[in-house]
Design a protein that fits this description.
With 584 residues, this protein is α+β, with helices and mostly antiparallel strands. Helix content is 17%, strand content 28%. The strands form 7 sheets. An 8-stranded parallel beta barrel has the order 4-5-6-7-8-9-10-11. Strands 16-25-17-22-19-20 form a 6-stranded antiparallel beta sheet. The chain has a 5-stranded antiparallel beta sheet with strand order 15-26-31-28-29, with no helix packed on it. Strand 7 (148-152), helix 5 (164-176) and strand 8 (182-187) form a beta-alpha-beta unit. The radius of gyration is 25 Å and the shape is globular. It starts with a strand and ends in a 6-residue tail after the last strand.
């Protein structure tokens, strides 16, 4: 059992250091779990650390999923088989640049509670989830012969609130489910965060990315082990910004400083993986900034599991520091180029609304969450009852992107994510000029959810609209189609699409299940599916230029299907499958 004695960890009575690396099972396809974990161990680490994503495990209230890439138990058992300990961070909030910080979108629907506090409705939902999750983990604890050394209570709570009753509820709930391993909190290295996030009877740990000696001063004279639960080895990317990198020398210098402080730590991330589908989150400080599909994070092991210069340097440091000889390295992944793929079939989004979505009728527009939708697109349409003069059309609650159509023709778009000058900031970001319209004009508004905010005071980030005004008059009588885009099999490709948004479909063969990347240089914005699996979003504004296509998704000996939803425009109906990842 992992215990604390002064500034030391003891494992079964012996001094122990946690050298962990973060990997999120839900960002890596299960076929690669063993390979990535072996590479973690070969780098000199003894523990894997992972968050748990409530929003995917309970996508609908009361319906739980722990299968496939959500099989947390299998992931942890794979680590145990390879000789790795585990740290589990069950949330309920995880941040992680993940949609809504891992909280399920249905928490934002009708009768929504206040999040991350002692709101009784929130606590009831949280209790239901933990009573489903934690009994699956209890047998995997090191105290029961498994490999789980410790679990976290909430996550960076001091960056959000200071509700000690809420933290005590969580601690006691975890203990009530036969969890007896060490519990810890993790907060930034400053007094405000530690004051809000610390809890009696729970080990305080820190999160930071540099200057270990200075960061650990925040613990003052506390006689507790020095543990950095998140040592940030890199950073994440937002659409439209530069790709973040960190040089090898900087990383190894700081890790060496951690070792010299006799500290334990977890490298965040050791292997980042991918925000497949619509799972990437967003930040909102001065403006709303959605996160890209790749979660490469400039980690030692890159998005597709290959070694980087940072990996080799860390591996040398970790083994040499303890005077040990490193084991042989597992093989590198093989990448392949499959060339150009013509996309000869097309299908219009608006022509396939009924096949793709569910139709609702509302006097006023509602948010996605009010219709029970978590991800994707939502389309609002109303018919103007009489003639209207030219005027400003305002979309209330718009937090992402919207395209406005008049009688099926694109009038314009609104992009809340775009940086704006000081002059532009004086103008509303959610309105455009509607021309004079005769009676019977059809007004359509397509909204894309680019990812809910995952950090800070804007966590309750509802998607879609709450109202549409022309001048001061609310327009009413809407037909609303929710488009989660979970299933595309009903698409009708028999009639070529003449307008955007539209789907493109093509086919290709693969002789090997090697890794490759989808290059979309002729496209503007949208999503990609391969054999029905959503790889994620693309956007020509970058920095990410290609999407990772895991080789395990490829069917050998038969045609593979690739589908692209282009929301704006494409210059050419082809894409390329290449052997090099371009993250900008």
């Amino acid at each position: 059992m992992l215990t604390c004695k002064g500034r030391d960890f003891l494992l079964n009575g012996e001094t122990f250091h946690i050298y962990a690396g973060a990997m999120h099972y839900f960002r890596i396809l299960p076929q690669y779990w063993e390979d990535r974990l072996l590479k973690l161990k070969a780098a000199g680490f003894n523990t894997v650390e992972t968050y748990v994503c409530w929003n995917l495990h309970e996508p609908v209230k009361g319906r739980f999923d722990f299968s496939g890439r959500l099989d947390l138990v299998r992931f942890l058992e794979t680590a145990r088989k390879l000789g790795l300990y585990a740290i589990v961070r069950p949330g309920p909030y995880i941040c992680a640049e993940w949609d809504c910080g891992g909280l399920p979108a249905w928490l934002l629907g009708e009768g929504a509670p206040r999040l991350r506090c002692s709101d009784p409705v929130y606590l009831a939902h949280l209790g239901d989830y933990f009573r489903e999750l934690l009994p699956r983990l209890a047998p995997l604890q090191e105290t029961r012969g498994g490999n789980i050394l410790a679990m976290q209570v909430e996550n960076e709570y001091g960056s959000f609130g200071n509700d000690k009753a809420y933290l005590r509820f969580l601690r006691d709930l975890i203990r009530s489910q036969d969890i007896d391993v060490l519990l810890f909190t993790a907060d930034g290295p400053c007094r405000d965060m530690l004051s809000g996030g610390r809890l009696e009877g729970v080990l305080p740990t820190l999160n930071f990315g540099s200057d270990p000696k200075g960061a650990f001063r925040a613990l003052g004279e506390l006689e507790v082990p020095r543990m950095c639960t998140e040592f940030w080895c890199g950073w994440f990317d937002h659409w439209g910004e530069k790709h973040h990198t960190r040089d090898t020398e900087s990383l190894t210098r700081e890790v060496r400083a951690l070792l010299e402080e006799d500290a334990s730590f977890s490298l965040y991330m050791f292997h980042g993986g991918t925000n497949f589908g619509f799972t990437a989150g967003a930040n909102q400080v001065n403006r709303y900034a959605p996160t890209v599909t790749s979660y490469d994070y400039c980690a030692p092991l890159n998005e597709y599991g290959d070694y980087t210069p940072r990996y080799y340097a860390l591996r040398e440091l970790m083994w040499a520091y303890r005077g040990l000889t490193p084991p042989p390295l597992p093989p590198r992944p093989r990448c392949q180029s499959l060339g150009e793929v013509p996309l000869e079939e097309t299908a219009g989004l608006f022509e396939n609304l009924e096949a793709l979505g569910t139709v609702h009728h509302s006097p006023m527009p509602g948010t996605m969450e009010s219709y029970g939708q978590s991800f994707g697109l939502i389309y609002y349409e109303t018919v103007l009852p009489g003639p209207y003069d030219r005027g400003w059309l305002t979309l209330e609650n718009l937090g992402d992107l919207a395209w406005v159509y008049v009688d099926g023709k694109l009038l314009g778009s609104l992009d809340v994510t775009a940086p704006r000058s000081k002059l532009e900031q004086l103008k509303p970001k959610n309105r455009l000029l509607l021309p004079e319209c005769p009676a019977g004009t059809r007004l359509g508004i397509l909204v894309e959810a680019m990812g809910r905010v995952n950090y800070g005071p804007h966590l309750a980030d509802r998607k879609g609209l709450t109202g549409v005004r022309l001048g001061n008059q609310y327009l009413m009588g809407f037909t609303v189609t929710t488009l989660p885009l979970e299933e595309l099999s009903g698409l009708d490709f028999t009639a070529p699409a003449e307008r955007y948004p539209k789907f493109f479909r093509g086919y290709f063969r693969a002789e090997r299940q090697d890794e490759c990347f989808v290059s979309l240089e002729h496209f503007t914005k949208g999503m990609v599916w391969v054999n029905g699996f959503c790889l994620g979003r693309f956007w020509s504004k970058g920095p990410q230029k290609t999407l990772y296509l895991p080789g395990t998704l490829l069917d050998l000996g038969k045609m593979n299907e690739i589908t692209v939803l282009e929301l704006v425009h494409s210059n050419k109906a082809t894409l390329r499958l290449v052997d090099t990842h371009d993250l900008g």
